[in-house]
Design goal:
Layout (H helix, E strand, L loop, with lengths): L3 E6 L5 H10 L3 E7 L3 H11 L2 E3 L2 H5 L6 E4 L6 H10 L3 E5 L6 H13 L4 E4 L6 H12 L5 E9 L4 H6 L6 H4 L3 H17 L2 E9 L12 E8 L4 E7 L9 E6 L2 E6 L2 E6 L2 E7 L14 H14 L10 H20 L3 E2 L3
Parallel strand pairs: 1-2, 1-4, 2-3, 4-5, 5-6, 7-10
Antiparallel strand pairs: 7-11, 8-9, 8-15, 9-10, 11-12, 12-13, 13-14
The protein binds nicotinamide-adenine-dinucleotide (NAD).
Organism: Chimaeribacter coloradensis
Protein name: Gfo/Idh/MocA family oxidoreductase
InterPro entries: Gfo/Idh/MocA-like_OxRdtase_N, Gfo/Idh/MocA_Oxidoreductase, GFO_IDH_MocA-like_dom, NAD(P)-bd_dom_sf
């Protein structure tokens, strides 16, 4: 297997999950890091034994780099992804792929023209519980899906926003809770149900109004393509990071995800199906343990291009972004919004 040389752009909180994964993925090696803060970047590059660039454009000109991991604030994703693809690199971009659907469409067009592949990091799709939910639904023993509800209540204090001032602002984050944290949950909901056709929702800010310009809480009703109805509530202003609570109500029973454990509940009783592993020490529990699996999956495709690709491509990443945008729009207009990814 030829080695693929990787580079990370952005040495902040999430880059640790990428650096850790690159140590473990066969046929991958972290070769360079770009970070606009030269003190942070130099220290990290020294710790990883890799090259340092303060200007990511110079990293893109480095012919030895095959794959670029984008771990920067949302407003930089579009120019960085398109630049990396134009430089002939493969790209693994943190979610959201962009700040809105318009930007994502430009990225998708660039990806369609480029020789390199573009993956977007929706690592929760790789959770054992997520995979099992898809199997249970595809197996059909629970019958038709009638409804789904998700409750995501996390805790983000003022320091989270002041440490990285791009967070919580429309110009740099594109929103807040929905586009950053809850987009994972919306992605899973739409993935389990096979897409969303329309939404009605509201966003608001309570506890975090003094530190963020955008919302800290949101709720929505979703109509899924399969005819089922979804209820969604999320907030960043809870007092702890509670695990996602998700329930899928089907004709013959329910699937329940609570405390990272998946249960099937039907007339015969409640059966434990599978649990998600805890992440490594360096990763926050609420990120889950999926980065390694998602990055391994992408490199497998890069190493074996003839095997059917299995990673979250930009067309998939656009779906949750479209739902996020529709909820923002609905909150402003108080109307149902049709979702067109
Ligand atoms: N998949 C997940 O569960 C998950 C979790 C956390 C964050 N994220 C995503 O990761 C991305 C980064 O988030 P974070 O929490 O690590 O942010 P952060 O603020 O901690 O880190 C961002 C880093 O990018 C650097 N940077 C800014 N401009 C740069 C430039 N022009 N060139 C090089 N470096 C630059 C900053 O100096 C900072 O070190 C976001 O897209 C976020 O949504 C994903």
């Amino acid at each position: 297997m030829n080695r693929l040389n990787a580079a990370i752009v952005g040495g902040g909180a999430i880059h640790v999950c990428h650096a850790d994964a690159l140590r473990q993925v066969p046929g991958a090696r972290l070769q360079a890091l770009a970070e606009i803060d030269s003190g942070t970047g130099q220290a990290l590059a020294q710790a990883y034994g890799c090259r340092f660039y303060q200007d990511y454009h110079a990293l893109l000109r480095d012919d030895e780099i095959d794959v670029v991991h984008i771990c920067t604030p949302h407003h930089l994703h579009k120019e960085m992804v398109i630049g990396a693809l134009a430089a002939g690199k493969h790209v693994f971009c943190e979610k959201p792929v962009a700040m809105n659907r318009l930007e994502a469409a430009e990225i998708a067009a660039a990806a369609a023209r480029a020789p390199g592949l573009l993956a977007v990091c929706y690592q929760n799709r790789l959770n054992p519980t997520s995979r099992q939910i898809r199997c249970e639904l595809a197996g059909g023993t629970l019958g038709k899906m009638l409804g789904m509800k998700a409750v995501l209540t996390w805790s983000r204090g003022g320091g989270y926003y002041t440490r990285s001032p791009w967070r919580g602002r429309y110009a740099t984050e594109g929103g807040s809770l929905l586009i950053n944290q809850a987009i994972h949950t919306l992605d899973l909901m739409q993935w389990f149900a096979g897409g969303v056709t329309r939404v009605k929702g509201v966003v608001d800010s309570g506890e975090l109004a003094a530190v963020t310009e955008a919302e800290d809480s949101a709720m929505a009703t979703l109509h899924f393509r399969n005819g089922a109805r979804g209820l969604f509530y999320a907030s960043n202003s809870y007092t702890t990071d509670a695990p996602l609570l998700l329930e899928i109500h089907c004709e013959a029973g329910m699937l329940q995800l609570r405390d990272n454990q998946l249960w099937r509940c039907c007339a015969g009783g409640r059966t434990h199906l599978i649990s998600d592993p805890s992440p490594d020490d360096d990763a926050k529990a609420y990120w889950g343990a999926g980065h390694l699996a998602a990055i391994r999956q992408f490199y497998q495709t890069l190493h074996h291009p003839t095997v059917p690709a299995d990673y979250t491509a930009v067309d998939e990443a656009q779906k949750s972004l479209a739902i996020v945008e529709a909820i923002y729009h609905s909150s402003q207009t108080r109307q149902w919004i049709t979702v067109n990814p």
